[in-house]
Amino acid sequence: MSEQNYDLIVIGAGPGGYVAAIRAAQLGMKVACIDATRGKADGKMALGGTCLNVGCIPSKALLDSSRQFHNLTHMFGDHGISAKDAKIDVGTMIGRKDKIVKQFNGGVAQLFKANKVTAIHGHATLHKDRKVTVKDFDGKESSYTATNIILASGSVPIELPFARFDGKHVVDNEGALDFDEVPKRFGVIGAGVIGLELGSVWKRLGSEVTILEALPDFLAAADADIAKAAQREFKKQGLNIHLGAKVTKVEVKKKEVHVTYEDGKGEQSVVVDKLLVSVGRRAFTKDLLADDCGVKLTDRGMIEVDDHCHTGVDGVWAIGDCVRGPMLAHKASEEGIAVAEMIAGLPGHIDFNTVPWVIYTEPEVAWVGRTEKQCKDEGIPYKTGSFPFAAIGRAVAMNETAGMVKVIAHAETDRILGMHLCGANVSELVHEGVVAMEFKGSAEDLARICHAHPTLSEAVHEAALAVDKRAIHKAN
User: Fold this and answer.
1) Tens-place pLDDT, residues 200-214
2) Is pTM beyond 0.85 here?
3) β-strand 404-410 against 382-388: which pairing, if any?
């Protein structure tokens, strides 16, 4: 079996892998990218990984479709707009989502072609001396070698032993993106990003949604004030969220899913038509590493790397969901660029402290940096300023008054430690905090920047002013 040699082989074509491949090609390397994902309709190579095929992009497509329908049936009346007997065609909605995914699959393929990146379809296994074998879907095996290898194999949903995915009644995020009709009763295990987003989609379209979260606190990773504001809005929307609810049993009986859980009141049960299990994700390393490759896994099953994403094996790197750090598409992309540049002899670095988090519900939730609790736990002296969207002219004009912006700054240096937001379009506004923190900016810096009026960004300006108790449009 003849071997083809490359300067770099990337295993995985998700947002970490394909970006790393393109950047390396820009830097003059001969690059191949190997991926096993198959298109939903044609079974052909579908570049983009989980994020593009069954994650970030398709979920946002459904979130937007469901938002349009919800606004038409619940909010347009406030604007004097009426529509009778509005209906949602789920098939058309899913078809639109699939079309968007395929469009971006083709976009990544075109970028590979333009940058002369070789795309190889099949499952890759890394062996010693940076040899990679690839088995295609016909069982044919080919072999490649490279000076450098980047492992970007991504992650897969965690499956509960008592709630196995059947693709029909008990589903993962992929299954919840492909229902052929609106389930009358939709259950979700896990009130994290995926659970809240997909719960929101089907709630807007008419489902009765029940979310069971084992932890006692809602959105424990977010700042407590923001989590409280978000929880209040979700409750108004009719999302039935049970905290401290530990699921113990799941049974499918006559096309219904019977879920048993325990909470402070004892054993409880709920019956739903579809159940989404979204309790987290784990690194995907199945058949990725041959015994002789030298790459090690952590006790959590992630690929072991140092601060520069190097595995300790000469020329072998790993990025994205399969290594430590947040499982976020944009984190994976930045790691991919950093590693490609380090391989080329350039400096490469990513600061995990300024990686933004976003939940695309309505209102959206976003944050960057430390929470108030983290500052307390770390003994960091801090001060805060917050401002509600209800006092922002643009938000009121848009009928999007829910939520707030909160800025946390160091009590002595005034340097911004974190920014936390809940409200319309905060997925975009959070980057004011990201940029300010990257440049070691202070709350005073944000407070002195002129923000256009009327805009939603004025809430950021006012929150920064409020850090020193000088917000203009609220009592300090």
Assistant:
1) 999 999 999 999 999
2) yes
3) antiparallel
d(CA 13, CA 315): 19
97 Cβ partners below 8 Å, 6+ apart? 58, 61, 62, 65, 177
Per-residue pLDDT tens digits for 161-200? 999 999 999 999 999 999 999 999 999 999 999 999 999 9
CB 366 within 8 A of CB 430: yes
Q: Measuring CA to CA, how many Å separate 257 from each of 118, 250, 322?
A: 45, 7, 32
Residue of 74, 453, 461, 473 marked active site: 453
Tell me whether residue 453 is one of the annotated catalytic residues: yes
Q: Are residues 39 and 94 in the same domain?
A: yes
| Count of domains forming the chain | 3
Residue 475 lies in a domain: no
- CA quadruple 116, 122, 124, 129: dihedral positive or negative? negative
Kindly compute the dihedral angle of the four CA atoms of residues 216, 219, 224, 229, in this order, to the nearest 10 degrees. -110
Residue where one domain finishes, among candidates 251, 279, 307 = 279
**Are 99 and 212 members of one domain?**
no
For 147-167, how does the pLDDT look when each residue is reduced to its tens digit (9 = 90+)? Answer: 999 999 999 999 999 999 999
The helix (run of H) or strand (run of E) holding residue 198 is helix 193-204
Closest by alpha carbon to 422, among 344, 352, 366, 343? 366
- Is 110 inside any structural domain? yes
Range of the domain at 221: 170-279
Which of 155, 228, 162 has its CA nearest to residue 189? 162
| 165 found inside a domain | no
